[in-house]
Amino acid sequence: MPELPEVAYQKKYADATILHKKIVNVETGDKKLFQSSKSEFEETLKNNQFTGSERLGKYLFLNLEKHGVLVVHFGMTGRLEYYQHEELPKYAQLTLTFEDHSRVSFTCPRKFGKLYLAESLIEFQKRNGLGIDALALQKVEFLEILKSKTGTIKALLMNQKQIAGIGNLYADEILFQVKIHPATKVNELSEKDKLNIYDKIEEVLEVVKKVREEGQKLPESYITTVRKKGANCPRNEGKIEQIKVSGRTTYFCPNCQEEKS
DNA sequence: TAGATTGTTACCTT
DNA sequence: AAAGGTAACAATCT
């Protein structure tokens, strides 16, 4: 599920389903997901309730009436499922039953998700060194982050300690939209390039966030819609290629996104 | 079937 | 010291 736009959708989903209801039962799954002891989760959540939610990057914060906040990281396959029936969904790792008998499960087939207990969003952000949320990022902050960096622009966009919220998919999308080769070194970018990248970060994330929240389709001009080796470029100027950049599989159009020399 | 998949991070090298 | 690249994690799909 999980880059910034998908987590924004999970926040909307949580807001519509699980706020202001007393939690009467807590069931936990594989302990590798739980970043505090499972008994601590059980004790903290039982007889408590969610009062609201916040999002930072790819993390969802479910604020509790007492004892701080439940923090959810969705890994690659995590999601919230709200339902009224008895049987647990497949891959349920945390299941809360509310006073009205409805339930919510955090499901996570690949178990890359993580659950934390924290005092607050700010405390969690500091403790984990998370950067500024990509949609709250100011132009000057972005330019400051780019200073004296030597790695690839793609790796920087995905570095959660610098900018929080962009992953492999939308890093590729941003660089496709701005027509910059993903392996370009940050120190080789012109000032114009940098400003264009900043604008596309905001544009792409806003567009995809809205698409996810409203259940719409991505624009046909997006490489994400044809993310496959040999596919036709949405601009019809070439064939999509697949390479590795900073260890991650990367899709781009060599025709639109020329390599700097 | 080998390699791919939206996540992070420990561990290497420079 | 710090920054950047890589492999590993788990389960499934093509």
Automatic annotation (TrEMBL):
Instruction: Write down the Pfam families for this protein, in alphabetical order.
Output: Fapy_DNA_glyco (PF01149), H2TH (PF06831), zf-FPG_IleRS (PF06827)
Q: Which domain of life is it from?
A: Bacteria
What chemistry does it catalyse, as a reaction equation?
Hydrolysis of DNA containing ring-opened 7-methylguanine residues, releasing 2,6-diamino-4-hydroxy-5-(N-methyl)formamidopyrimidine
The residue ranges of the Formamidopyrimidine-DNA glycosylase catalytic domain are 2-113
| Keywords attached to this entry | DNA damage, DNA repair, DNA-binding, Glycosidase, Hydrolase, Lyase, Metal-binding, Multifunctional enzyme, Zinc, Zinc-finger
Kindly give the Gene3D superfamilies that the UniProt entry links to this protein. Answer: 1.10.8.50, MutM-like, N-terminal
GO biological process terms held by the UniProt record: base-excision repair
SUPFAM superfamilies to which the protein is assigned, alphabetical: Glucocorticoid receptor-like (DNA-binding domain), N-terminal domain of MutM-like DNA repair proteins, S13-like H2TH domain
Q: Which cofactor does it need?
A: Zn(2+)
Q: Which residues form the FPG-type domain?
A: 224-258
Q: Does the keyword Hydrolase apply?
A: yes
Annotated GO molecular function terms are: damaged DNA binding; DNA-(apurinic or apyrimidinic site) endonuclease activity; lyase activity; oxidized purine nucleobase lesion DNA N-glycosylase activity; zinc ion binding
The family assignment reads: Belongs to the FPG family.
| Protein name per the record | Formamidopyrimidine-DNA glycosylase
